Amino acid sequence: MPLPQAHLLDELATAYIQALAASSGAIISVSRLDYGVDGTLKHVVKTDDDMYIESGFPVDFQLKGTSIATIDENIVKYDLKARNYDLIATRPVAATPYYLFLVCFGSDATGWLIEETGRLVLSASAFWWTLSSVPTNNTTSVRLEISASNRLTAAALRNMLVVSKERFA
Q1: Is the per-residue pLDDT at 85 higher than 90?
Q2: What would the DSSP string read from start to end of 2-22?
Q3: Cα 22–100–110 angle (5° rounding)?
Q4: In 14-168, which ranges are E strands?
Q5: Does pTM surpass 0.90?
């Protein structure tokens, strides 16, 4: 029995982020109870005695999987619920860094996951967004215009973890 499309998008978006995190030397912890933070990215480091531990400098994220974002050469447009916008924008500067991870799939669900001999392909693009600001006056949603240069990659995740460490260390 297939999942509802919204749940399928959520599950595939989580898999996408988990793959990027692993490639960047991190793990994700997905929140079982969602109070606005869908998960936390945790950097894993090797100690001098060859042990692996979490660095202690995490990054929180809100995860959205979508097939309705508008993507062009320079801008990704996405309507984020006003509450979700406010959760990120009003996060205290002294708190753990907080990002929106937007995983964008095409309109045809049959192409989202491609299974072939020797490889499994998630056909999506991901982007990140964050802001420190005041709450929106909008009551329903806020149209985000995310620079296409904010591609969410393993290198981008590593950079977020470095910024988190620099913020606290």
Answers
A1: yes
A2: PPPHHHHHHHHHHHHHHHHHH
A3: 70
A4: 26-30, 39-46, 52-54, 59-66, 70-71, 75-81, 98-105, 113-116, 119-122, 124-129, 141-147
A5: yes
| Residue-wise pLDDT tens digits, 136-155 | 999 999 999 999 999 999 99
pLDDT higher than threshold 60 for residue 102: yes
Q: Write out the residue range of the structural domain in which residue 106 sits.
A: 5-168
C-beta of residue 103 within 8 angstroms of C-beta of residue 63: yes
Q: Are strands 59-66 and 98-105 parallel, antiparallel or unpaired?
A: parallel
Q: In b/e form, how buried is each residue of 140-157, taking b as 16+ CB within 10 angstroms?
A: eebebebeeebebeeebb
**What Cα–Cα distance (Å) separates residue 37 from each residue in 22, 51, 101?**
20, 29, 11
67 by DSSP, 3-state: which? coil
- CATH number assigned to the domain comprising residue 70: 3.40.1350
Digit-coded pLDDT (tens) for 63-80: 999 999 999 989 999 999
The answer to whether 64 touches 76, Cβ cutoff 8 Å, is: no
The tally of domains found in the chain comes to 1
Q: Which residues pair with 129 in a beta bridge?
A: 100
